[in-house]
Structure formats: structure tokens, C-alpha cells
Amino acid sequence: MKMLEKLCCMRLPTAGKVLGWLGVIAAILGYIRIVLLMNGTEVTVVVGDTIQKQYVQIDAVTGSIALVINSLNLLISVLLLLGIQKNRHGLVLPWLIFNGFVLALCAIAFVLAIIGFFASGDSTLLALLLGYSLGLALGIYIYHGILSLYYYLKENGGPQGSWPA
């Protein structure tokens, strides 16, 4: 498989840093969201022509599981940033494992959406399939870019490693 040299028009370490910081920001916002949902929050929902307010709260078990997954995402994002900064391929590996698992779950959801579309014939599932396919394609592209970064660091990394101009 050919390794990428750039990801989204950025050098691989720059794209990795952007993804790492986006992961850190998403984790911080995730903590806020989880805490709000565990304490209960009022949400405005539009149903047809009417606006309704609903009280939404998650239980302690669901909130705890969400906090663990969010903490794992934060840790993995920080490890990605450190791996790029220190030119250590081993610190990029947790990001690849976690996001490979997420991609596998997305692929399963995509297959289930295809089965649901053909089983029901519901045309609204077609938009869902389009969204899944675009999201899955983008996820695979980003994964391939970070995998390329991993292999580059593995071959040229270490404290003395450097990036070509």
C-alpha cells in the first residue's frame, strides 16, 4: 500500500497535530456534555410546527461509561501529539488501534444500514447511507494518513529524527 505524504493538503505531522488538538477539544467538550446530561438538562425539540421542551438525563452507569470512553479519547489524543513532538512511533500506535476499532464499528453500521435499506425499501435510509459512506471514506483517508505518519516515524523517528522540508 502506498503511504501518503500529505493529509488534507498538510504535511503529515501538521495534520496529526491538528487531529490531536481536535481530539483534545472534543474530549473537553464531551466532559461538559456528559456532566450536563448526568445532572439533567432541558432540551428544546422541534416536532413538526411545535416547539417542545424536554428534560434529558442519563443514568450513572451510562454517564460513567461515556466518561471512560471520553477519557480514553483524551489520553490517545495527547499521546498522538506527544508522539509527533518526540518523533516516537509507539506513541502514535494507541491512536491507530482506537480509531481502527471505531472504523470497524462504523463499517458494521454501514453494512447494517445497507441491509436495512434493502429490507425496508425506505428512501430516507438512502440519505443515511450517503452520510455513512462519506463519513467512512473520510475516516479511512484520515486513518491512512496517520498510518503513513506512523510508518514514517518508525523508519526515521527517534530523538534525532527530522521531517523533510
Please report the distance between the alpha carbons of the first and last residues. 23 Å
Looking across the biggest beta sheet, what order are the strands in?
Answer: 1-2
- Roughly how many Å is the radius of gyration? 20 Å
What is the SS-derived class? mainly alpha
Oligomer: single chain
Q: How much helix, percentage-wise, in residues?
A: over 70%
Report the biggest beta sheet as strand number plus sense, adding barrel if it closes: 2 strands, antiparallel
* Beta content: 5-15%
> Any idea what the shape is?
globular
SSE run: EEHEEHHH
Could you walk me through the main structural features you see in this protein, from its secondary elements to its overall organization?
The protein is built from four helices and four strands. The chain is mainly alpha-helical and 165 residues long. The protein has one domain. Strands 1-2 form a two-stranded antiparallel sheet. A two-stranded antiparallel sheet has the order 3-4. The chain is globular, with a radius of gyration of 20 Å.
